[in-house]
Each structure stands twice: as structure tokens, then as C-alpha cells.
Design goal:
659 residues, mainly beta, 24-stranded parallel β-sheet, elongated, disordered C terminus
């Protein structure tokens, strides 16, 4: 609800009514200069200034009046400027060290160009800095908590969409927004206080959607919500409620100090640079699905181990979903358990040394340029996931005879997943055992120059170059959502289960089960397909075949650019609540070369099954007459199949999207 109130308020600020502005004739404020002790009451709806104006007295912008400081206007206030209505600045307004600008309960002050304060600005209503505008504060800015409008149902708001430079002091007791093109820079020696006395909404409430850089002192005693980027080079103190939202960053730079004595929640990225300090004394840090990046040696233990000499103190909760990324030196001397749901990442430039016992049940990530030294240590991967962006790291972990072996003892137990996101080359025999998952991730390249046997789960999301023999055994499951390229010399035999929406380049011999897609999807074979035995499973969830975009298909189909030889059984399933109807056609095997053979027990026009009262039949003359299709109408003798197929299509059996 607070966001709707803010948006409504900003609309009032930014969109003045031209009709209202023209109710009175233009009135230039005078006298200029306005002498000390003199009062100017501005009541016109079209008051303006277009020159250099000096105010040493009192100017009051009364209710329902409008004042426009035009592009050529330079308004210098040495006295008092009181705003009870609308002020728009498109030129330059300067508040001198003796000047006061008070934006009262009904005031609406918007600066579209340059505003400089060396005195005192008090805001009790709506104060806006437009995109492209600059506000330099060398004095004091108080954004008070208050209510205005009919019934007092709107709150005071400072809305920064431009650049706000603070060289002085700011106290926010109301609501503050930093959004659109907003950039707030709290300079060295400056102070920004977000303050609350425990009252209701907008009492010390700060919403950042863009960029804050702090070189001074930033103190939060209210509610601070970050949906943008904060870089702290000096002192940032939270004694209130600080929330760093998902997808956003709070960084403590070298020399900076982040002090938390309140409640701090991180769902985004919390970064600690070399030489920075985090003091959590009396505070509570909850990392809820967020990422913590540290360039400080052994900072992980300073966060999680209260017995550590460098413990940050207070309460630290690293909840399931936490990622801790080490970019410095991290040494394990005792026992470390990376629990399920947690990610421990050794980032680029980071060194992880294990001299103790390390157990991974979560995710352990090794980035490009990182180092893992397990000499004297023991790493047990018990049902966890290991992700590597380092070439051939699988062998560095699993093969003690490898020149790059990490040392110590490494146990990859049943349930282990190893995910390759770099280059991995197998030159001898590589066996992915039952219970293990070998994943070639997106962007990864797995090259097999020997014999790769899969008895577990082999997942390919990248490119698998098979120059040798690829054998998916009876117990194995191979999921291909990337590309398997045989270079026309490799051999690929499936005795287990093959699924996915990827591409196979070369000759594919199938003795097992082939299941196109991941649920409904398309499998592409750029070569020849030999179905020797086993089964093929086809899922039907709708009539639409993607119309050129295979990712959109509502039913499984297999595209073969070369020859296809059929055998084995055909299993058909309905998914996603789909029901068959008369006239349905599913062209599920599309062959570019020669089609031969038939599925076991299924001749031309035979009944495949009955689904919800509808009979489903098969034809080996579908599509262009060389494809295999399912349909809900019987087809006559094979010699007239193509002719009847064309006639049926003309009678309305066209493939259409199910809505």
C-alpha cells in the first residue's frame, strides 16, 4: 500500500495542470532584491522568476499558488522561503548559509535542474529531484515525519531521481526514495541519518532502487530497504532494520566499516572487500537465500564460528540457500560440513586449503583461476554437488595418478553429482558408476576419445564430442539437452534410457528406451537412427507441434535427417490433462531419408490403444508420406495411405494449437 501512496505522490509532483497554471495572468515576483524584513506573499497561479533574484526577507508561496523558477532564473535565498503549494525549479536555486527553505504540509517542491543548500531545508510534504537534476547539500536537510492532504492521509516523502550530493547533514524522519536515475553520494565528512522513533509507516523509512555511495557516515535507525546497489567506503551503521533484497548488492569497500546492531536480512549479494570490517555486535544477520562474497582471509569462520578469534559477534544465521564465495585464503583445520541446501564457492583468485575433514552435502563450486589444496586433508562428497569451471578438474579430484591431483583423500560417494562447466577430455576408460551423476553443464565441453560407459546418470547441457565409444548401459539414464556430436566416426549405443530435447549428430543405435523431450519435447537426430529393440515413449499433451519452434511443442516428436529403421515397442501416454478428439493427428517421427521397419505388433493402420473412449491408430505414411503418425481415424489399405491422408487433411484434420 505504501508503494501506491508514493507513486500517487510522485504523480502529483511531476505532472502539474496547465489549466490551473493559466487561471491568473503571469506574475513576476518582486521587489528584487527582497530586502530584509519585507514579506512577499505569492498567491498567483502563474508566478515566476526568470533572472537573478536575491531574497533577504520572507517569501511565502501560499496555498493554491504556483511558482516557477525558469531556466534563466537564479534564485538566491538568504532569508526565508516558505512553500505551502507548488514550486518548480528549472533554473538554479541556492539556499545560503543564512537561508531557510521550509516545504510545509501542503507544499510540493520539485527541482528539475540545480539546487544548492548551504543553509537549512525542512520538508514536511513532497520534495522531488527530477532525473538529470542535481541537488548539492552543504548544510542541513531535515525530512520530517508528517502527514498532509485531506484527512492527513499522505506522508512526507523525499523522492530523488537525479543526483544527490551530501556534504553536510541529512536527517530523514519521513520517507525517502532513491529511484529512477537516482544516485545518492554521501561524501567524506557528511552524515546521513535515517531515524525513527518507532511510529508507524514512513517514520524513518528509506527505499533505494538505484545507487548509493557512502564516503561519510550513514546511520540507519529506521527501516532501510535496498533494491539497488550500495557501496560503502566509510562507515555504515544499522541499528534499525536493514533489508538487502534479492538481486541487489550491499558492498563494504576497502577501508569501509559495516556495523550492525539491529536486524539485517540479506537475500541479495553482501560483499566484504579486502581491508573492510564487519561488526555485528548486538545485531542479527540473517542470510536468507542470499550470496556473501568475501575477499578477507578465513572470513567464513569469522561469520559462522563463535569460538573463532575474529568472530563478528552478535547472531549470524546462514539459512538454507546461502552461498558463501571465498575470494581470499580459506583454510580448514578442523571439521567443515557444507550442509544440504548450502553452496560453498571458491571464487576466482581464491585458495581453499583443507588440512582437516571436509564433508559436502550441498554444492561445492570451483571457479576459473581458483585453487584447492587437499594435501593432508580428507574431502568426502556425500550426496553433494561439485561444480567446476576448471579444465579436467574431475580427474584432478578423482584420480590420484593425475598430475594435477589435489592431494589427500577424496571420496566421491554414491549420490555425488559432478558438473563440468569447462573442458573435460577422457582419453582412456571413463565409467560413471551407478548412483553417480556426471553433468556436462551449459557452456561445458566433454570430449570422449576412449570409452565412456554410463551406469548412472549422464546429463549433457553443453557439447559432448564422442570420438570413441559412448555406451549408455542398461542401468544408465542419459539426458541430452545439448549436442552429442560423433563426428561420423564415434559410436553411440543406448541400452538404457535416453531422453531430452537435444541433438545427436551421427549414427544412433538404440536397444533401450528413447523418450523425446523432458515431458513434451523434440529430439533431433542429424544422421541415421536404428531402433533395434527396446521401446519408444511418446507423450501427448496437445496438438501444437511448435510451428518451427520446437520448444513450444505440446507433444513429443523425433526428427531424423537421415534413415530410420524401426523395431521395438511404442508406448503412448496422455499428459497435462489432454483428451483426444476425432480428427487429431500427431506426426511424431519425421524422417528425411528412408523409413523402414515397424514397431512390434503395430502394422499400418493398427490400433495403438483407446484413451478416454477415443481409439488411436498408427500410420507409416504420415506427413509427406515418409513419416510415422498417430491419428484418431482408421486409415484404409497402405497402398492408398498417402491419398487418404491428403483427403483427411483437407477435411479439417490439420494440426492446430489446443487452447
Amino acid at each position: 500500500m505504501k508503494y501506491l501512496t508514493i507513486l500517487a505522490a510522485v504523480c502529483l509532483l511531476m505532472v502539474p495542470s496547465v489549466t490551473s497554471a493559466q487561471r491568473d495572468s503571469p506574475q513576476k515576483i518582486s521587489p528584487n532584491p527582497n530586502p530584509e524584513g519585507n514579506l512577499i506573499n505569492v498567491q498567483s497561479n502563474n508566478a515566476f522568476n526568470n533572472e537573478e533574484f536575491l531574497n533577504n526577507g520572507v517569501i511565502s508561496i501560499e496555498r493554491h499558488a504556483w511558482f516557477n523558477n525558469q531556466e534563466s532564473g537564479r534564485f538566491v535565498n538568504n532569508g526565508y522561503l516558505g512553500v505551502k503549494s507548488r514550486v518548480f525549479n528549472f533554473g538554479q536555486i541556492e539556499i545560503s548559509d543564512t537561508g531557510v527553505l521550509e516545504n510545509n504540509e501542503w507544499g510540493q517542491f520539485v527541482s528539475g535542474h540545480k539546487l544548492v543548500n548551504r543553509g537549512w531545508i525542512q520538508n514536511r510534504s513532497l520534495f522531488g529531484v527530477n532525473s538529470g537534476a542535481t541537488f548539492d547539500n552543504y548544510g542541513t536537510l531535515d525530512n520530517y515525519y508528517g502527514e498532509y492532504g485531506p484527512g492527513g492521509n499522505q506522508h512526507s516523502i523525499f523522492d530523488n531521481n537525479g543526483t544527490f550530493n551530501n556534504y553536510g547533514g541529512v536527517v530523514n524522519k519521513g520517507g525517502w526514495q532513491n529511484d529512477q536515475d537516482g544516485r545518492l553520494i554521501n561524501h567524506q565528512g557528511a552524515t546521513f541519518d535515517n531515524w525513527s522513533d518507532g511510529a508507524e509507516d514512513f517514520n524513518g523509512w528509506f527505499l533505494n532502487s538505484k545507487t548509493i555511495e557512502n564516503f561519510g557516515a550513514f546511520n540507519n535507525v529506521g527501516v532501510f530497504e535496498n533494491y539497488g546497489a550500495i557501496v560503502n567506503h566509510s562507515t555504515f551503521t544499522n541499528d534499525g532494520n536493514l533489508k538487502n533484497a534479492d538481486g541487489n548488492t550491499l558492498e563494504t569497500a576497502t577501508g569501509g566499516t559495516l556495523t550492525n546492531g539491529g536486524i539485517m536480512t540479506n537475500s541479495g549479494t553482501l560483499t566484504f572487500r579486502t581491508g573492510s570490517t564487519f561488526d555485528n555486535t548486538g545485531g542479527r544477520l540473517t542470510n536468507s537465500g542470499g550470496r556473501i562474497e568475501s575477499y578477507i582471509d578465513d572470513h567464513y569462520f569469522a561469520l559462522v564460528d563463535s569460538k573463532n578469534a575474529n568472530f563478528v559477534r552478535g547472531t549470524v544465521n546462514l539459512e538454507s540457500g546461502t552461498t558463501f564465495a571465498n575470494y581470499a585464503n580459506m583454510t580448514i583445520t578442523g571439521t567443515l560440513n557444507n550442509a544440504a541446501g548450502m553452496t560453498l564457492e571458491n571464487g576466482t583468485g581464491g585458495t581453499l586449503s583443507n588440512d582437516g575433514i571436509m564433508t559436502n552435502n550441498g554444492t561445492l563450486t570451483f571457479r576459473t583461476g581458483s585453487t584447492f589444496d587437499n594435501t593432508g586433508g580428507k574431502l568426502t562428497n556425500a550426496s553433494g554437488r561439485i561444480e567446476s569451471y576448471i579444465d579436467d578438474y574431475y580427474f584432478a579430484l578423482a584420480d590420484s595418478s593425475n598430475a594435477n591431483f589435489v592431494g589427500g583423500t577424496v571420496n566421491l560417494e554414491s549420490g555425488t553429482t559432478f558438473a563440468n562447466y569447462a573442458n573435460m577430455t577422457a582419453t582412456g576408460n571413463l565409467n560413471n558408476a551407478a548412483g553417480m551423476t556426471l553433468e556436462n553443464g551449459t557452456g561445458g565441453t566433454l570430449t570422449n576419445n576412449g570409452t565412456l560407459t554410463n551406469d548412472g546418470a549422464l546429463v549433457n547441457e553443453g557439447i559432448l564430442f564422442n570420438h570413441g565409444t559412448l555406451d549408455n548401459s542398461l542401468e544408465g539414464t542419459l539426458t541430452n539437452n545439448g549436442t552429442i556430436d560423433m563426428f561420423w566416426v564415434g559410436e553411440f549405443t543406448n541400452n538404457g534410457t535416453l531422453n531430452g530435447s537435444g541433438t545427436i549428430i551421427g549414427r544412433y543405435t538404440d536397444h533401450g528406451q528413447t523418450k523425446p523431450g523432458n515431458s513434451a519435447g523434440v529430439m533431433t537426430i542429424d544422421g541415421d537412427y536404428f531402433k533395434v529393440e527396446g521401446s519408444k515413449e511418446i507423450e501427448l499433451g496437445g496438438l501444437f507441434d511448435g510451428d518451427g519452434d520446437k520448444a513450444l511443442t505440446e507433444h513429443d516428436w523425433l526428427e531424423v535427417t537421415g534413415d530410420a529403421e524401426l523395431s521395438g515397442t511404442l508406448d503412448v501416454k496422455l499428459i497435462d490433462g489432454f483428451d483426444l478428439d476425432r480428427g487429431n493427428v500427431f506426426n511424431f517421427l519425421r524422417v528425411g531419408g528412408i523409413l523402414s521397419g515397424q514397431y512390434d505388433g503395430l502394422s499400418e493402420g493398427d490400433l495403438v490403444g483407446n484413451f478416454g473412449g477415443q481409439d488411436l491408430f498408427i500410420t507409416y505414411g504420415g506427413g509427406d508420406g515418409n513419416d510415422v503418425a498417430l491419428f484418431t481415424n482408421a486409415v484404409p489399405e497402405p497402398t492408398t495411405t498417402v491419398l487418404i491422408w491428403t483427403m483427411l487433411a483437407g477435411l479439417g484434420m490439420t494440426v492446430r494449437r489446443r487452447r
